[in-house]
Each structure stands twice: as C-alpha cells, then as structure tokens.
Amino acid sequence: MVRKAGSLSLTREQGRTVRHALVILGLCLAAYYPSLSGEFLYDDVRFVEDNEAIRSLAPSSIASFFTDPATLAPVGWKGIYRPLRTLDFAIDWAISGGKPWFFHLRNVLYHALGSVLLMLVLMELFAQRGKSFATRAGFPGAVLFALHPVHTESVAWITSRGDVLVLVFLMLALLAHLRGKRVAAAIILVIALLSKESAVVFVGLAVVVDLYRGEKRRYGWYGVYTAIALCYVVLWNLIMPSPEFIQMPGHLSRWWGGSYGANLLTMSKGYLLYLHRLLFPVDLLIDYHVPALGGIDVGSAVSIAVLVALLAAAIRGGARSRLALAFFFIALFPVSNLMIKVGIPTAERFLYVPAVGVMILVSPWLARLKPRLVAVVFACFFLLTFHRCYDWRSMEALWGATNARAATPRGLSQLISKDLLAAHEAQKKLRSAPLGRKREQAAAVRRHAEAVIRRTDQLIGLYRDEIGMPPDLLGSRALSMKANALMLLGRPEEALEAADQALRISADKEQLAPSAWYNAALACQELGQYASAAKNLAKAKEVGYESGGDLTPAIATLWNRAAAEAEAIGNLPLAVGHYRRSWEALPDRTRNAVAAAGLARLRGRARISSQDRER
Fold first, then answer.
1. Assign residue 353 a region: left if phi > 0, alpha if psi is -120 to 50, beta otherwise?
2. Residue by residue, what is the 3-state secondary structure of 60-72?
3. In the CATH scheme, what is the code of domain 407-542?
C-alpha cells in the first residue's frame, strides 16, 4: 500500500508538472502575441533579411555556418561566432519563406521552453525539501521569469535568438548535471557554446549548484567542462580572421570612461540599474547609456554601498541567497565589462540568463504568499510585457518609445535618420506640388530638417556631457546627416562645417563615413569651391558612397568648372591641371568633350604663360 501510495503521489506530481508546463506555454504565447506581427528590426536585417547564406539548407551550406563566420551576416559579422543561431535562422527561412512572424514565434517558443526547463531546475534544487514542495516552489519562479517585462528585448527581437537558445541549453545542461548525467551535460554544453559564447558561465554555475546542494565536488567533471570552454575559445580564435574588437556604431572599443578604474565606477551604477529594472520593470529601453565617471560621485557611492549591502545580506541570508547572488553575478560576468570590453555598458538582454539567479531566490517566497497576491503580481507583469511588445513591432515604434522615455545615442540616431528621410520625401513632393501647396511642402522640409539638426546637437551633447568622450562612429553618421539637412535648408557654410566635423571624428575609419564626403562635396559645390567639391566627391566614390548612379560624370563636370574658373582669371597652368584631372576621371571624348577641348586649347598657351611669368 505504501508503494502504491508513493507511486500515486509521484504520478500526481508529474501530472501537476505537466499542467504547470502547459500554463507557462500558454502565458508566453499570450503575453508575446503582439510581437508576432513585428517586422525585421535593425540588426535583424543583416543577420536574417539580407543574409543570403541562410537561404539554403544544403549540407555544404550547413557546414559553412560552422567553418565560415562570414555566413553570420553580409556585414558586421567579425568578432561573432554563433553557428547554431545561424542554422536556426536558416531552418526558419526554409519553413516560412522569410516571414518575420515565424521567426518571432520560434523565439517565443524557445522562451517558453527555457522557462519550463527553469522550473525543472528549480524543482531539482528544492527537491531536498520534498517533491511536493519542489513542485510548488519551482512553478512561481518559472512563471515570473516567463512574464518578466525585462525579457521582452530577448524574446521579441529576432537577433536575440542566441539568448533564448543559450538559456534552453544551459538549463538542459544544468538539469543533466544535477541529475548525475554529466556526459549529457558536457555534450549539451558544446551545443550551448555554439549557440552563444556566454555559455562559458556553465562551469561556474555547475560549481555553485553543487555547493548549494552540499554534494561531493566533481573536480574531474569541472575540468571537463572547463576544457570544453577552452576548446571553444581556441576554435573561436582559429576561425575568426582577426581577434580584436570590431567597432560598430554606438559601441566603444575601449573601457567605458576611458580607463579601467572609471569603467568599474561606471559599471557599479550599471548594476544598480539592473537591480532597478528587475524590481521595477517600467520605462524599459533598448538603449541605455550610463554616464561615464572619472571619479566617485554620489550615484556611484550609493551603488557601491547597495552592492556591498546586498553581498552582506546574501552571505548572512542562507545557502539559497548565496546561490542566487553567485548565479546572478557569474551569469552576468561575460557582459559586465570587468574583463572583456563588450562595447556597451548595459542592456536588458544581458539580464536574460542572470535573472535565473533572482528566480532561485524569490520562487519559494512566492510559493508561500497568498495565491491572489501572486496572481496580481503575475497579471501586472503580463500586462507590462504585452504592452512592451507593441514597441517591438516596428523601428518607428521602437526608437520613438526609446527617446520618449530617455534620449539615448542609438535611439537619437534612428530618429535622425527617419527625420532626414521625411525631409527628402517632402523635398520630392515640393518639386512636383501644385502652386497652392508649395508653401505647405516647404514647411514640411524645414520642419523635418530642423529636427535632424536639433537631435544631432542633442546627440553630440550626450557624448560630451554625459558619456564623457568625443562622439564615436554614431556621432559621425549623425553629423553627416546634419550636413545633409543644412543643405536642404540652404545653409551650405554650416553644412560644410558639419561634414568636416563628421570626417574628423572618423578620420581613421573613412570607409564608414562615405555620406560625409558626399555632403561635403555638395556644400563645396554650392559655395562655388568646385575643385574641393570634385575631390570630396571622388573620395565619396572611393569609399563606396551609393547615390543610385555613377558619380564619375559629376566628378569630371566639377573639375571642368574649376578649370573654367581658373582659365577666366588667367591661371592657365591651374586650368590645365584641373582639365587633366577631369580627363583622368572620365577619359571619353564623347562624354567629356569639355576636358578634351580644354586640354587641346590650353596646353600651348599654358607653357607660354608660364614662361612670361618667369621673365
């Protein structure tokens, strides 16, 4: 009878676990339903929409995902090696034909699976207090994780597929390790690392969960896990053509604040920001900038004091609180800017795996509260997540929401781009508008162009006053767009100044600022500086500016205009030099008859004029 009762009890617990899993799945699908109608958003374009590599699932294509890191994206792939994520995108593309909703759905399903696996991990951790308690205590933490609004970026953004994948495999590996299936855990760790490099934290997580459960130290297996992580690092270095950090717009290639000490102080405020977002997940943003610090201020002092107090409380609070804190900081370490320069100080997606540590702490507490109170908490989180998903449906909604709550560098840059595009659209309508609507369209051009200028100045101010450094590539791009807007307003002198500033910022990265050269050329042309305009336009062509047509005839025309001006004032050698440059740019008698005629006409006269000057 005892055996039957035990068997019946176990069956009931299994049934309850299945029901809990189905509840978590349903809640995830409901909370993230608005994200299913989302489009491909900024990085999604290069990793998915424009990535020809994921169009095929042929064996050779699949193999290339693991051997050729350039299959990750057409541009901006250096420094990233996540072949399983790329393979997963290829599977999505093959099934859906490139429909964004299917990619979003897969993200939500992975998030639901990761949440269910988290529930099983929590049940294993709490199993020493009985199966019934473990089942009850594991469920609330998993639901809280599934519905927490701070995870919206990781789930609703297709590019964050690596985050939801790595959680699934980390939880599977931990579950296998906790159940004594360490060979399986090692194999799953390999899969997790090929999904995202942050899976290296598994080594530390395995150690701390064993310490929590008071089990015998498995030093041999810790060594195996460490060896796997080191092999991944070696593989990464062998496959990547260049190990250095590749700077991207909006990312830093040095310590935040300019030095390691300033970086530590800045990140102390970043940790406080993380704590705030976990406890009060409102006014969420895709882009945060933590003001860089050169020394201790009130904010960093408070942050350090809070962190020390939390550490002391965790140490005194018992084994579970120590495990929760250790799990959180170990999982956060790869993106904490303490050893590796991540490029950005903080991001909500960085909290996706570390938040598991918080769930370890709070899940048993939630199980002891009245069900109605817990339901209210879950309902609030559900509504916040549901609402936040609407921000992730389009670029306009995403960056508009970001800058409505706080001005951030990348958010401002996106809005500057949109305003400049709107200004150009209004300019097109102005050219063809009936006479009665000319004034209306001109006002629209002016309104959008002035918004570009205002937001660019705000962006540069952010870098100068709060980030504490000169504008990076993002600032260069914004200044180039400001120059374009100033040209639309008929202010070429200021446009040239803005374009020159953009080029000074990216002087060693000219290939990233082709539009600045082009805008400098437009401004010089408007000011009658034709030789400078020709040089700038030639540089724009050299560094890859795409204007929808060949720039060569325009370059030749500008040199011809410069030559005509020199000829008009009697500087014949200079005129010949300009005609020669025009001919070198476009050596075609039909298309560049002006340069051919000018050279034929002036070569002899230029020599005579030179001899007269010598006399």
1. alpha
2. HHHHHHHHCHHHH
3. 1.25.40.10
- The two structure tokens encoding residue 405: 């709550």
User: Is a pLDDT exceeding 80 seen at residue 587?
Assistant: yes
Cα(112)–Cα(606) distance, rounded to whole angstroms?
79
Contact 150, 356 (CB under 8 A): no
Contact 324, 278 (CB under 8 A): no
- Percentage of the chain beyond pLDDT 70 is 89
Alpha helices in 369-472 (DSSP H): 371-391, 395-405, 409-432, 438-461
Q: Which band of pLDDT confidence, cut at 50, 70 and 90, is reported for residue 378?
A: very high
Residue type, 564: A
What are the start-end ranges of the E strands in 138-209? none
Q: Which position has the token pair 């760790």?
A: 189
Dist. CA 432–CA 424, nearest whole Å = 13
3-state helix, strand, coil in the chain (%, to 5): 75, 0, 25
CA distance 422 to 445: 8
Cβ(162)–Cβ(191) under 8 Å? no
Q: What CA–CA distance (Å, rounded) separates 273 from 337?
A: 15
The domain defined by 550-615 folds into: Methane Monooxygenase Hydroxylase; Chain G, domain 1 (1.20.58)
The answer on pLDDT for 528 being more than 70 is: yes
Running DSSP on this structure, what letter comes out for residue 18? H
Decide which of 470 and 145 is more confident: 145
> Which residue from 361, 337, 390 is spatially nearest to 279, judged by alpha carbons?
361
345/263 Cα distance (integer angstroms): 9
Q: How many Å separate Cα 519 from the centre of its chain? A: 27
Structural tokens at position 188:
């799953």
Q: Residue 204 is encoded by which pair of tokens?
A: 């530390």
pTM of the model: 0.78
CA distance 290 to 277: 14
Distance separating alpha carbons of residues 278 and 284, to the nearest angstrom? 11
Q: What's residue 615's pLDDT?
A: 31
Domains of the chain, residue spans? 16-395, 407-542, 550-615
Q: How far is CA 605 from the centre of its chain?
A: 60
